[in-house]
Amino acid sequence: MGDAGEVSTETLTSGPELRAFLHGLPGVDQVGADERAARLATRSIKTSAKAQAIDLAISMVDLTTLEGADTPGKVRALCAKGAHPDPSDPGVPKVAAICVYPDMVATAAEALAGTGIGIASVATAFPSGRAPMEAKLADTAMAVADGATEIDMVIDRGAFLAGDYLKVHEEIVAVKQACGDAHLKVIFETGELVTYDNVRRASWLAMRAGADFIKTSTGKVAPAATLPVTLVMLEAVRDYREQTGRMVGVKPAGGIRTTKDAVKYLVLVNETAGPDWLTPQWFRLGASSLLNDLLMQRRKLSTGVYSGPDYFTLD
Amino acid sequence: MSDRLSVRKTYKLFIGGAFPRSESGRSYVVNDGKGRFLANASQASRKDVRDAVGAARKAFGGWSGRTAYNRGQILYRVAEMLEGRRAQFVDELHATGLAKPAASDEVDRAVDRWVWYAGWADKVGAVAGSANPVSGPFFNFSTPEPTGVVGVVAPDSPLLGLVSVVAPVIATGNTAVVVASEPAPLAAITLAEVLATSDLPGGVVNLLTGRRAELAPWLASHMDVNAIDLAGVAAEDVRELEVAAAENLKRVLPPGISDWSAEPGTARLTAFLETKTVWHPVGV
């Protein structure tokens, strides 16, 4: 599965060329991908390996709040939680980033100053991506100006599904430019891309357009992140590095709620892309309720008794 | 003469309204009163305890939020279903070693016990609560509220004992994780089938079969369990479980009853209640 060894990776500038390249990618064996992901999900990770996996997963979490009802107070509370996930245990690592809407970036930046935690902002008319190009770029530029260190953009799924790959490509390039020094994560919303072939095409399209990270979903559409979709994306980043030498990160987001789920993703990363990706720099988990489950499992390992949700903050 | 193959029941656990096998895949042999093989029962593990507590916690909000009257109706419905399965329960108790008339008598008592607790559901608030006279322009009410998730280690009386410890816990709005009798767990699983078919929301009662010594400590130490009934625990094991339960200040009901046919009184009903007192200004 999954090598695009024969195709050229030099810059393609015209629509037909890009189209020919993306449709020249080998197809994804859907049954094979499902089967492989399911097989890897049966790995048993216990005791000290589990403790390591939990700490690694906590350090990879992009702690997210993307609700219409977000208030500055809620964002500040989330930032405090990200910096000290379990106040009773200083050994718990901090999360990788806090992910908020653009208008909350300034609040988050203030609350996170000096912690070393990234400030991720969704942009480009998240979650639908249905807005004029100027609005999307302004959205991005303002989030960056307010202090965002990472931008999570959504692609124009309408254009992608209609086959207008050049438009999607140019949009990513333009947003990447507007990002400046901020890292760019490109969200595909794989639940709307329908096939694994499309996921593979979108991955290559985004990586070639300059994405620093590719991300499965917004979390607003079901199905959100699934193991097979993440597998296809991990294969893409692996193959892309083989060809170009550039590493691209992966971020599954949405629907990852339990420690067990998170550990399955870590196994998938290790077995597909390789251990190089097993750091918060190259792999993230977009989640909100996952963190509490990780903390509960962590406490179960350290105290030997099952914990309950009463002993952790609500978010 | 009949050459029909026998269709035997697989005895599984009851968690969150479903009948899963033990996560561990284990089972243990259950024998009848004479030591002959009766069936294999699931041998639950600590992870089944964890799952059951999760299911009970999830069900607590809905169950405790129903009106006491509605809970009473549902419990009465359980009694109706129990009555409909009389013959099955009599056979099951007979198989554990009870004579037919004694088994029949035991089932009668169990059904009556359940009806009795069903009747208490909407009365316990009036009996255990009060309108308190206070000097000042206030109404002052004390109302009993359910404690939360209650762990129950059921006694060895396979049906009457089980009913006598489960019904009072859920009648007042708690949800329960029950460890069934270790030597006689089969009637408990049949009771679970009754509960699953009588409008009781999934997760209100979760039944585990297996080794008491293995499961009880996990239940006693679980930080999300609010109370524990040690009815079926041997005297020498009580202390250790009480110590484990102290970590999050669980309410603990120690064992003490051996004759389950005696009048139960309201002690078990009120054991898992907490009193909330509310002041309300008069004339507003």
UniProtKB/TrEMBL annotation, chain A:
A GO biological process held by the record: carbohydrate catabolic process
Name of a matching Pfam family: DeoC
EC number: 4.1.2.4
InterPro entries the UniProt entry points to: Aldolase_TIM (IPR013785), DeoC (IPR011343), DeoC/FbaB/LacD_aldolase (IPR002915)
Reactions that this protein is recorded to catalyse: 2-deoxy-D-ribose 5-phosphate = D-glyceraldehyde 3-phosphate + acetaldehyde
Pathway(s) the chain acts in: Carbohydrate degradation; 2-deoxy-D-ribose 1-phosphate degradation; D-glyceraldehyde 3-phosphate and acetaldehyde from 2-deoxy-alpha-D-ribose 1-phosphate: step 2/2
Matches recorded under NCBIfam families: deoC (TIGR00126)
Protein known as: Deoxyribose-phosphate aldolase
Encoding gene per record: deoC
Automatic annotation (TrEMBL), chain B:
Keyword tags: Oxidoreductase
EC number(s) per entry: 1.2.1.8
Domain Aldehyde dehydrogenase, chain residue ranges per copy: 23-252
InterPro entries: Ald_DH/histidinol_DH, Ald_DH_N, Aldehyde_DH_dom
Claim: Translocase is one of the keywords in the record: no
Molecular function terms, GO-annotated: betaine-aldehyde dehydrogenase (NAD+) activity
Classification via Pfam families: Aldedh
Residue ranges crossing the lipid bilayer per the database entry: none
Enzyme kind, highest EC tier: oxidoreductase
Descriptive protein name: NAD/NADP-dependent betaine aldehyde dehydrogenase
Organism: Actinomadura macrotermitis
Lineage of the organism: Bacteria, Bacillati, Actinomycetota, Actinomycetes, Streptosporangiales
